Amino acid sequence: MSVNKVILIGNVGKDPDVRYLDSGVAVATFSLATTERGYTLQNGTQVPDRTEWHNIVLWRGLAQTAEKYVHKGDKLYIEGKIRSRSYDDQNGIKRTIVEIFADNMEMLTSRGAAQAPAAAPQAAPIQQPADNASDDLPF
Q1: Rg (CA), the chain
Q2: Does this model's pTM top 0.85?
Q3: What is the number of alpha carbons within 13 Å of residue 75 lying toward its C-beta?
Q4: Which end of the chain is more exposed for a tag (fewer CB within 10 A), N or C?
Q5: Is residue 74 part of a domain?
Q6: Closest Cα partner for 107 from 4, 16, 2?
Q7: What are the angstrom distances between the C-alpha of 1 and each of 6, 17, 103, 135?
Q8: Which residue segment(s) compose the domain that 55 sits in?
Q9: What's the number of domains the chain is made of?
Q10: For residues 106 and 108, what is the distance between their CA atoms, to the nearest angstrom?
Q11: 56 with 63: CB under 8 angstroms?
């Protein structure tokens, strides 16, 4: 048995890029930043914050929700699986992209928080249907 499961809580790096395939299926992509806070070792050495950037891919209803409600700076909870793909760039160099295909997304930034930072965060769970036909798509 094997498990491919990722859980991320982070901030959206750019507004989602949403496109529609010829079949009408929506696909959204955006970056998500997760940051491990820095700390000081016992000997006084400072370890700085470490930020990782993740490429998020949403399909169908999740993509449409992201198109309407997700914006740069929003805090999101993402559950999904890691996928990697390779391609040859213009110079013939093989490149690999690692993406998180999200099955579940919760918006942790309330709608009013963008205008009023004192607003309390509110979680809004959104799940991808169990039938994940995106497994058959080429990206």
Answers
A1: 17
A2: no
A3: 12
A4: N
A5: yes
A6: 16
A7: 17, 35, 20, 19
A8: 1-35+46-80
A9: 1
A10: 6
A11: no
Residue pLDDT, tens place only, 21-66: 999 999 999 999 999 999 999 999 999 999 999 999 999 999 999 9
The pair of structure tokens assigned to 46 is 């400072």
CA distances from 50 to 27, 33, 46, 110, 127 (A): 29, 10, 12, 26, 29
The pLDDT, as a whole number, for residue 113 is 57
Compute the average pLDDT of residues 72-99.
95
* 51: helix, strand or coil: strand
Flag whether 17 is in a domain.
yes
Q: Which two tokens stand for residue 32?
A: 């998500």
Give me the residue label for tokens 């769970």.
125
d(CA 4, CA 81): 5
Q: 94-136, pLDDT tens digit by residue?
A: 999 999 999 999 999 877 655 544 434 445 455 555 544 445 4
Tokens of 106: 């919760």
Q: What is the dihedral of CA 79, 81, 82, 86, to 10 degrees?
A: -120
Centre a 10 Å sphere on the Cβ of residue 70 and count the other Cβ atoms it contains. 24
